[in-house]
Amino acid sequence: MAKHAFLSASASHRWINCPPSAKLCEGIKDESSHYAQEGTDCHELCAYLVEMALGRDVEDPTENLTYYSGEMQNCAEEYRDYVLEQFERSKKFCSDPMVFIEQRLDFSRWVENGFGTGDCVIIADEVLHIIDYKHGLGVLVESEGNSQMMCYALGALEAFDDLYDISTIEMTIFQQRRENVSTSSIRKDDLLKWAEDVLKPTAALAYEGKGEFKAGDHCQFCKVKATCRKRAETNLELVKYNFEMPATLDDFEIAAILPRIDQLITWGNDIKNYTLTQAQSGTHYDGFKIVEGR
Question: What φ, ψ does residue 200 adopt, rounded to 5°?
Fold first, then answer.
């Protein structure tokens, strides 16, 4: 019986830090939201504008986009202009660079059934450039050490390393709505070392549901973040902080607590949102009832 491919590049930050979370989340349906659909729409518009600018025969998707707006058009045009600038820059490295849009990238040499879709891949001698568009406003995404981008880079190397003499990989997060264009670079040899030493063994654990649960900022997009026992234990450590002696906290103790406060608040809100959804579906929690808000 074939195993499902569930170790995605987009979720790699979570399953690399918490390998057994992959199995725990398997089979739980993704909750759709208008934010996700808005991002999908903008990706489609971005791809169209870039390919049209490159002289390719593509169909205008605008009338079929649910959340199309002037802001989305502006973001997509900024992305197109950036991609074209980087394509022109790549011509400094070689005479025949190539641009691939919405390119399927396979990194299954290191992650079983591992694949993803690269928004933009520019291949040239010396430099391989991966560009990823982010439409979200809530979370500022950085490229440095970004495992999703590193997985995409590995997939691009698998496909094109024999065609070009690549020594460096550049990775860019283009997040126009946050005025964030974050670029980092890594040597090809260092990327391949990370793939062998970190990615491959961790993916093997995650695929089998093994390894240790670990709570952290990677919990943010986990499907079981509200009910995860490890996350609860980690946050309850702060709740159980010994406040008995002395009667007031000193500055050193407060400094130790402060970095954990936001994580604790986020965890509490996740549980509240989860229990409200469950209660609306019929689950009863002793001592609580649903009341209509104003």
Answer: -60, -50
Residue 61: CB partners within 8 Å, gap ≥ 6?
A: 44, 45, 48
- Give tens-digit pLDDT for 237-290: 766 654 444 556 778 777 777 777 777 777 777 777 777 777 777 777 676 666
**Strand residues in the chain grouped as ranges (E):** 98-106, 115-123, 126-133, 166-175, 180-187
Model-level pTM greater than 0.85?
no
Nearest to 114 by CA among 3, 230, 279: 3
Tokens describing residue 148: 């999703």
If 0-12 CB within 10 Å is exposed, 13-18 middle and 19+ buried, where does residue 119 land?
Answer: buried
Determine how β-strand 180-187 pairs with β-strand 166-175: antiparallel
Helix (H, G, I), strand (E, B) or coil at 3: coil
Residue 169, both tokens: 């990989």
Structure tokens at 193: 């070392």
Of 65, 63, 74, nearest in space to 44 by CA:
65
How many angstroms separate the CA atoms of 144 and 2, rounded?
35
